[in-house]
Design goal:
The complex is a heterodimer of chains A (334) and B (264). Chain A is mainly α and 334 residues long. Chain A is built from 16 helices and no strands. Chain A is flat and about 75 Å long. The two termini of chain A are 43 Å apart. Classes of the chains: A mainly alpha (334), B alpha/beta (264). The interface between A and B is medium-sized, with 22 and 25 residues.
């Protein structure tokens, strides 16, 4: 009888095999630890088809992770809010362990996915170990190019977008041009940029800025144009100047659209980074990818792609934080 | 009749207020190339400190008339003047309060109320007026709240404060209580009357509610169907504060409803 009631209860349903052991031990943590340990054992115990280096380091990291997960499995159920975060990501930790084990087996150990096209996880790790300083320099160069390009593209795109959304005359001339230029890939401008810009770095910045600026301009203009007219009536009635209407009403009211534009711009600008770094760059993650591709250093390529993906995800996260702060006034914004 | 002329006006010493003169005003909209006449030959004088209610079927141009008086739009023909000078643009001395509070959702209540002072660049010197306007409508404790956190009645109070902070000589109320629940509406009706009596502005109220019109206004103007013309005019000569079951007001209400074609 009490079992039936428990089964009806939502909590009982979420963990069907509810027992005394599971309440005191985080089961997913134990399973994840096993998966991570399997990756470590597979790396050490089985012979390589072709050596990749850093296999011991990789095994140590995975074994360390497994040990940490075992400890967490006992800490997490007693850790309150801190524990809830781990429990939420438990299935992911298991998946990562399983994925790394299979990856290690199919590449380095069985050779089903052969060198040089594929690399085991320790191959990527080996790249980070042996190329540390070069990769760090490349990260610095890429971040410099991206941040200058994205920031200038965002500023110019936002200003253009407000003007396009606000002024009928500006929109009459600007909108058709923007609609024509918009779909052209930013990379198609490379010949012109070589002519117009004094340095290749300035040309690269322009390409990144263009790819970021266009979605921001389009989204901002649609945001400004869709502001509730009644807000302007209120402003005019209260004695607001034209500049006040633009800066204090149109600008904040269009902010939700602007953020959509910023997210789109972020992905576009990251996509063109590789091409922008073709233009006579000496360092940069995009340049490094091309350089290593030319020498069939695919492990280096994968290792760099992982870094780029992490950087992009980090910036997306920052943008979300900024959005939540600036758009807190918006109820139910997704 | 106990009511004297002064009792039917807002307190004259309290503040400046203005008289409005509407002469031969007609207005039409262009809709897909065809002309839609909304108002036709309106002649109306509103005395300084008076509370006038405009009643009429929906779509008869009442709200348009308020927009014309505010100066947000210009009449197709005819003239509207305030104290003898032609109204050709909006001005913070004549403030329109809409049916929707139209508060800026990105700004706190305090900043919303401060809009007028900020727009005219006097906020720094006169910020105390924002607090007193919030006190006036009882929203002092909500000055840091955002509009989405307010109830309908509170939002409309904030919109009133945003108007009052500018010390308007004329308040144009476009069904400001139309969307509120009936209890909030009754409370705000009383608050509107006492604000008007204390602050001394001239008030023109557009409403659908005949009871509200006779309860608040010293004069009720009934407009015809579109294109709106002045059909009838009723003086409400009862002293404030009024009671909604006052037999004279009930009788007047019946009379007005009959004019609107809704005989009971």
């Amino acid at each position: 009888m009490s079992n039936a009631i428990e089964a009806l209860d939502g909590r009982a349903e979420r963990s069907p095999a509810l027992s005394g052991v599971q309440q005191s031990v985080w089961a997913s943590g134990i399973i994840a630890a096993v998966a991570w340990a399997a990756a470590a054992i597979a790396t050490i115990a089985l012979p390589d088809v072709v050596p990749w280096g850093s296999d011991r380091l990789f095994a140590v990291i995975m074994a360390g992770g497994a040990l940490a997960l075992v400890i967490l499995a006992f800490v997490v159920p007693r850790a309150g809010r801190f524990g809830e975060g781990w429990i939420n990501y438990g299935p992911w930790l298991i998946a990562i362990g399983v994925w790394l084990t299979l990856w290690e087996l199919t590449t380095a150990k069985f050779g089903w996915l052969p060198k040089p096209f594929f690399s085991p996880p320790n191959g990527l790790l080996n790249v980070y170990v042996t190329e540390t300083s070069r990769i760090l320099i490349c990260i610095g160069y890429t971040l410099r190019l991206w941040s200058i390009g994205f920031a200038s593209g965002a500023v110019v795109g936002y200003a253009l977008g407000v003007a396009l959304g606000w002024s009928k005359r500006f929109s009459y001339w600007g909108m058709p041009i923007l609609k024509l230029i918009g779909p052209v890939p930013a990379t198609a401008w490379i010949p012109c940029t070589f002519f117009f810009f004094p340095t290749t770095f300035a040309a690269s910045v322009f390409i990144v800025a263009l790819s970021a600026g266009i979605p921001i301009a389009i989204l901002t203009s649609s945001g400004v144009a869709s502001v509730n007219r009644a807000y302007y009536d209120v402003g005019r009635n209260l004695g607001a100047s034209e500049w006040y209407l633009v800066s204090k009403i149109a600008a904040p009211a269009s902010l939700p659209h602007v953020f959509v534009g910023l997210f789109m711009a972020l992905y576009y600008s990251f996509a063109v980074l590789v091409v922008a770094e073709m233009l006579g760059a000496k360092f940069g993650l995009g340049w490094y990818i091309q350089f290593e591709t030319a020498y069939s250093g695919y492990a280096n390529v994968y290792a760099t792609l992982v870094i780029m993906a992490l950087i992009c995800a980090g910036i997306v996260k920052l943008l979300f934080v900024a959005r939540d702060r600036l758009l807190g006034w918006q109820k139910g914004f997704i | 009749m106990a009511a004297t002329a002064t009792e039917l006006r807002a307190a004259p010493a309290a503040s400046r207020n203005i008289a409005i003169d509407i002469r031969g005003v007609s207005h039409a909209f262009e809709l897909d190339g065809s002309r839609l006449a909304v108002l036709e030959s309106i002649d109306l004088s509103v005395e300084a400190g008076e509370f006038v209610a405009l009643l009429g079927p929906s779509g008869c141009g009442k709200s348009t008339l308020l927009r014309l008086i505010s100066g947000l739009e210009q009449p197709t023909t005819g003239f509207i003047s305030a104290e003898g000078s032609l109204i050709d643009r909006p001005d913070p001395s004549r403030i329109l309060v809409f049916q929707d509070p139209t508060l800026f959702p990105w700004a706190t209540v305090w900043n919303n109320v401060a809009t007028g002072l900020d727009a005219r660049g006097v906020l720094r010197q006169e910020s105390a007026r924002v607090d007193s306007a919030l006190d006036l409508v009882g929203l002092r404790d909500f000055s840091k709240a955002y509009p989405h956190q307010l109830s309908g009645g509170m939002a409309q109070r904030a919109a009133l404060a945003r108007a009052l902070v500018n010390d308007p000589a004329l308040l144009l109320l476009d069904e400001p209580l139309g969307k509120l629940d009936s209890l909030t509406r009754l409370t705000l009706q009383e608050e509107l009357v006492s604000l008007w009596r204390r602050e001394g502005f001239t008030a023109i109220l557009v409403t659908h509610d005949v009871e509200e019109a006779v309860l608040l206004a010293s004069r009720v103007i009934v407009l015809s169907e579109r294109p709106g013309r002045i059909k009838a005019e009723f003086k409400v000569e009862r002293p404030y504060p009024r009671h909604r079951d006052d037999p004279e007001l009930v009788g007047l209400r019946r009379q007005i409803l009959a004019t609107l074609g809704l005989a009971t």
